[in-house]
Amino acid sequence: MLNKSNTRALCIGLLASLFSISVCADALDEVKEKGELVVGTEMQFAPFDFLEKGKQTGLNADIFKVVGEEMGVEVRFLDLPWASVLPGLSAKNFDLVGGPLIVTKERKKRYRFLTPIAEATVALLKRAGDDSITAPEDIAGKEIGAGQGSAQLRALEDYTKTLNTPVEIKGFVDNNQAYAALAVGRIDAVANSLPNIGYVAKQRPNTFEVVQPPFGEPAYFSYMGRNDEDSRALLDAISSIISEMKADGRLAELQEKWLGQSMDTPTGDFEPAM
Amino acid sequence: MIDFPLLVQNLPQMLTGLLATLGLSAVALLIGFLIAVGVCTLRLAPQPMLRRLGGAYITVFRGIPLLIQLLFIYNFLPRMGLGVSPIVAAVTGLSLCAGAYIAEILRGGFLTLSPGQAESSKMLGLRGWTIMRRIQIPQVVRLTSPALVNEVILLIKASSLVSVVGVAELTRVSQNIAASTFLQLQFYFAAAVLYCIVNVTLALLGSLLEARMGRVRI
Amino acid sequence: MNFDLNILFDNIGAISNGFVVTIGAWIGGVVLGIVLGLLVAILHRFGGKPLKALLRIYIEMIRSTPFLIQLFLLYYGGPTLGITLDAIPAGVLALGIYGSAYFAEIFRTGFNSIPSGQLEAAECLGLSRRQVILRIQLPQMGVLIMPALVNMVTILLKETPVLSIITVPELTLVMTGIGSETFAFAEVLLVLCIGYLILVEATSRVGQALEKHIGRYLDHRTQQIKTPEEMA
Hints:
The structure holds 3 protein chains of 3 kinds. Chain A is built from 10 helices and 14 strands. The longest helix of chain A has 20 residues, at 4-23. The termini of chain A are far apart. In chain A, a hairpin with a 2-residue loop joins strand 3 (49-52) and strand 4 (55-57). Chain A folds into 2 domains: 27-118 and 221-259, Periplasmic binding protein-like II (D-Maltodextrin-Binding Protein, domain 2, 3-Layer(aba) Sandwich); 122-211, Periplasmic binding protein-like II (D-Maltodextrin-Binding Protein, domain 2, 3-Layer(aba) Sandwich). In chain A, the strands form 3 sheets. In chain A, strands 1, 5, 6, 7, 8 and 14 form a 6-stranded mixed beta sheet that branches. Chain A has a 5-stranded mixed beta sheet with strand order 11-10-12-9-13. Helices cover 42% and strands 24% of the residues of chain A. Chain B is mainly α. In chain B, helix 2 (48-63) packs across helix 4. Chains in contact: A-B, A-C, B-C. The interface between B and C is large, with 40 and 37 residues.
């Protein structure tokens, strides 16, 4: 019966449900509303994300172009120093991290990875013609550089424990600074993922050389977002677009363009070795 | 020794970076000045609580290194619900820091104003804020303009640190160019020259102002 | 935010090392800066025109460019000129050079504040240049320029976090490293803020005490050193 107190209760109930519906707008809805996906990344990470004449270029730019088209949104990249990227993600300064980042156990605990896009096994870059390093073990006792706070540096730390003489590890703000230090002889090698140092060695064969085989555990690169309910739909959407790209060969094409070869990457959830 | 073609090729980018540097510094100066007036008012207030508040602001923002302030604003504040973009973080950080230094500069200026002025203005019926705005602040700005010009120079130099929150000002642009060309010496030197040109010009302006000060009696 | 203290205790070794490097680099930079600055100031005062001009350019270039750029020039640009320094030496050297320009200016003002009458009298009495500097100018200068010196020393302390950018393992680098490893970024930053505040405040207090102690010799109205009668 619609008496005064019932009506009041009904109104409050309706208002409450309306309110909860509007509060249910999550990251995906926000992105579609704004028409913009914001990706945090560090542009000193060739060939995934780097600057050519001031313009962003690389595998990430190409992949996200497809993602943007299929979602009907613009993609905006924020160029941040690496140390600010993960904190920035946690702080919701952007929707997801470009990177890409290596999938590690520690990171999986706190964040959510999308389906992987490339191999990331860590290897060493040395100066061309440096015969003192012919295999990974030869770096024992030498000075090796890597990106501060990166999984590649962690892999180096793990590796040095297996050597009889430990390595002196220098953390650089970004990999380009590490390559620069290597080139002038300040360090003896740089530890980074194979696709990255492969690219650098290809661009400057007179300066750099890759040390085979890679010393790291098998690893994969992925984009990464927050582990919360709010981001779930958004990350699902982007992940499925990338999965489609894997299935129909578009990703393989881009891998050949930027990484020199196509690579197999896991399609479902997997347990990272690192 | 100097790779001229590459230098010329990248010059437009560097100049864009310089423009960003100057823009950032200008905005930070403006906002910092407003903050400084506020803090200065607190510092010169009759109530000891307010004075302590003003003093605390200055201690905090002059005591914590700017780099840490920038990282804090960009990484920590969002946890409390104030998400910021790199540029906003940069301007906020620079403004808050500048505000503290400018507040001290202004305070010195305020203290040299004769209190008789404020008293006679009150007798003429002007209210406190109007006295501030139309009589005191213009005089203080004139008095302290050499120190303020110096502060601008400091701000332009300090802006080089906002590269850590990813803003594409002159230092970050030089870093990027140096990274892709491996010609660090050349491009960092070019950046140094650009900073020099701007700051030496400003310093000359400051000296001019200081010279004119000597002839003005307040 | 409640695992603050645990993280600190777990990493206390690394944090102490970082702290030691910060203090070491700071003191190294200050000492180098003062020695170099004094040298520049003395050469400027007593040198010929070309030397004066050269030193002027040195001072202006350093004071007109950001410290970060100077640091990059030395660390990344240096090897091109044959100067390949490790991170810590490069950091200390850059701090010292940066400080020297400011210290030189402070010493210059100090030199100018000594009444020329004293210097003329010293010349008449046959004192050597070295004696004039060491026994007449520096001691009196010390009193007058103490606040400016303390201020500059504090500024150099606040520039040390910048050294982290070229991998010097000082406090900021160590703490942000811990932050990335434990994912406790915000807490780490808070600790850094408090840490530096304490250091700067402490320096400030020590400076004020020094100024007070030395200020006994200064007649504040005239900014002149007290005569023996006035000091009694």
